[in-house]
């Protein structure tokens, strides 16, 4: 699953000696560095989570060498030299550690244990699972979510199907209004609550176990990736309405959709809110950044130039 020469994958965390933990966001090296985004800052005994604005402000003031401008993608994110990494937190290793410990050490770990038992009951193979988010670094609190990683498209959709079956069997719950609102406040972006909840309720990549939200996110296997050789130039913001003609990579990271629009036939989303957002045959409205492949001239629409994707969205055009 992990390449020997570059073992870093999205959903991993990398920790530096200066008390920073970055979430890996790229499958490929960037001039020998790990493409990532600052997520946690040490504040003594604990880790403090930071948002995009806080992360950029902190790095620009105190650690500017982690700020990175990608010429390939004409985008700004963070990057850490492999030599600066003191700990590589790997989701599958963390999950294995928790599964092998004699007993859970808190309520969230206990719920994780029960959740895994339920998923296995519906055919999930835990060898394809990992654990990211606060639990990857042991920073979970009573109200924390459980963030599962699933490696490979086939295993991911099998896990999604298991979530759907477990909800139908009453062993886990759909997100109630409170959890959905909490999810919306964290990630809603440009959609209103009703639009957001409608899209989320049909994805089956989130549910709850005894009031604790859990999430499943996909990480592609090496053979599922496209080569990263294209060079993109940004060409402004555009809004497009079109029909989805291919959704088989809708839950990938980043999510991909093919649409019947000659100018921008590909839609890519780096924002988790718009993963699995639309299905084949549906008409969608997209606002995103137009990017042009400098070699072929082919354009694409990108949603999620920041984690919060301010001003950018994908939504299904529904008959009211």
Produce the secondary structure layout.
Layout: E1 13-16, E2 20-30, E3 33-42, E4 47-49, H1 52-62, E5 67-70, E6 75-81, E7 85-89, H2 91-100, H3 107-121, E8 129-132, E9 146-151, H4 153-168, H5 177-187, H6 193-200, E10 206-209, E11 212-219, E12 232-246, E13 255-259, E14 266-269, E15 283-293, E16 299-303, E17 313-316
Name the helix and strand elements from N-terminus to C-terminus, one letter apiece.
EEEEHEEEHHEEHHHEEEEEEEE
Number of helices: 6
Mean pLDDT rating: 93
Main pleated sheet: 7 strands, antiparallel
How large is the share of residues in beta strands?
Answer: 25-35%
Helix content: 10-25%
Q: Given the C-alpha coordinates, what overall shape results?
A: globular
**How many beta-strand elements?**
17
Report how far apart the termini are: 45 Å
Integer-rounded radius of gyration: 19 Å
Category from helices, strands and their pairing: alpha+beta
Contiguous low-pLDDT stretches (5 residues minimum) are: none
Summarize the structure.
The chain is of the alpha+beta class. It has helices spanning 52-62, 91-100, 107-121, 153-168, 177-187, 193-200; strands at residues 13-16, 20-30, 33-42, 47-49, 67-70, 75-81, 85-89, 129-132, 146-151, 206-209, 212-219, 232-246, 255-259, 266-269, 283-293, 299-303, 313-316.
Task: List the main descriptive attributes of the protein structure presented here.
320 residues; 7-stranded antiparallel beta sheet; 5-stranded mixed barrel; 17 strands; globular
Structure commentary:
The chain is α+β, with helices and mostly antiparallel strands. The chain is 22% helix and 34% strand. It contains six helices and 17 strands. It has helices at 52-62, 91-100, 107-121, 153-168, 177-187, 193-200, and strands spanning 13-16, 20-30, 33-42, 47-49, 67-70, 75-81, 85-89, 129-132, 146-151, 206-209, 212-219, 232-246, 255-259, 266-269, 283-293, 299-303, 313-316. Strands 1, 2, 3, 4, 5, 6 and 7 form a seven-stranded antiparallel β-sheet that branches. A hairpin with a 3-residue loop joins strand 1 and strand 2. Helix 3 (107-121) crosses helix 4 (153-168). The chain is globular, with a radius of gyration of 19 Å. It starts with 12 loop residues before the first strand and ends with a strand. The model has no long low-confidence stretch (mean pLDDT 93).
